[in-house]
Amino acid sequence: MELRQIEYFIVVAEELHFGRAAKRLQMTQPPLSQQILQLERELGVKLFERSKRHVGLTNAGKVFLQEVRQILPQLEQAKAAALRAQMGMLGRLVIGFVGSATFDILPIIVREFQEQFPNVDLVLREMATPMQIEAFHKKEIDIGFVRTPVVDPLISLMSVNQETCIAVVPKLHPLAKCTSISMGDLSTERFILVEREVWSSWYDDIITKCRDAGFSPIIRQDVKEIQTAVGLVAAGLGISIVPRSTLNLHARDVAYVSIEGEAPHVEMSIAWRTDDNSIMVKQFIDTVTSITG
C-alpha cells in the first residue's frame, strides 16, 4: 500500500466520481481506476460500489475512509518531523560537561542553542573529562565540555576559553585581606585540590607552580569537584587554587585572591567525535563559534 493510493482513495471517496477525481488529481481516469483496484486487491476488500451512473462507498470503504482521514495528517506530521530532523532542527543531543563549565560558558551556549533550535532535546550529563572520553568511545555523548589537553585521535577539540587561576581562602584567613598574593605566600598552607585522576594537567600545573616558588604543597584533601573544594575551604579545612570563573559561585565564608606572576591556568574546550557528521553537532559547534568568536 502506497501513500499516494490512500490520497487517491480519499479524493475519489469525496467526489464519488472517477472523472472529477482524476481532474482534481490532475491525472487521467484509467490510471486512477487502476490504482484504486490495486488498493482494493492489497486490502482484500471492496471499497467502492461501481455502476455506469453511480459510484458509492461500501461499508468497508466508509470505515477505511474514516480511519485514513485520521492517519494521513499523522503521516504528514511524520514527514515534516523527518525533514526537520534531517535539517538538524529536531532530535536529541547528549552533552557531557565538567561541573566548572556551569560557572560561565555552558549556560550561555546552551541558552543560545535552545533559542535557535527549540525542538532539539538537549540532554546534559555532568562528568569529569576522563569519563567523557570514555563516553565518546561508547557513543554515549555527542558533545563534551572538557578540560584540555586531551590527546585522542577519535576526538576533535575546539578551545572555548582560557583563564588564569586564583586562590580561595577562608573569609577570616589573614590572606583574605590581600588584593593579590604570590604562590610563595601559600607555602605553609594546606591545599584542597581536585584530584589528579579527574584533572591531571591542572593538578600537575599547580604542583609545578608551587615547586617553582620553592616549596612542595601540603595536600590536605583531594576532591572530585571545584564546588566541593570551595565548600571545604569555607569550612576552614585549607585553601585551594581555582579557575577565575569560580568567582561566579558567590560562595559564603570564603575570599578570592588574585595570584601574581606565573599563576596556574586552565583551558575549556568543546569536544566531539571526529567521525561524527551529524548536522546537529555541526550546528552546536557553529553556535559555540558565534559566541566565542
TrEMBL record:
It comes from the Bacteria. Residues 1-58 form the HTH lysR-type domain. SUPFAM superfamilies: Periplasmic binding protein-like II (SSF53850), Winged helix' DNA-binding domain (SSF46785). Signal peptide: none annotated. The keyword Protein biosynthesis does not apply. The keyword Transcription applies. InterPro entries: LysR_HTH_N, LysR_subst-bd, WH-like_DNA-bd_sf, WH_DNA-bd_sf. Pfam families: HTH_1 (PF00126), LysR_substrate (PF03466). Keywords: DNA-binding, Transcription, Transcription regulation. Belongs to the LysR transcriptional regulatory family. This is LysR family transcriptional regulator.
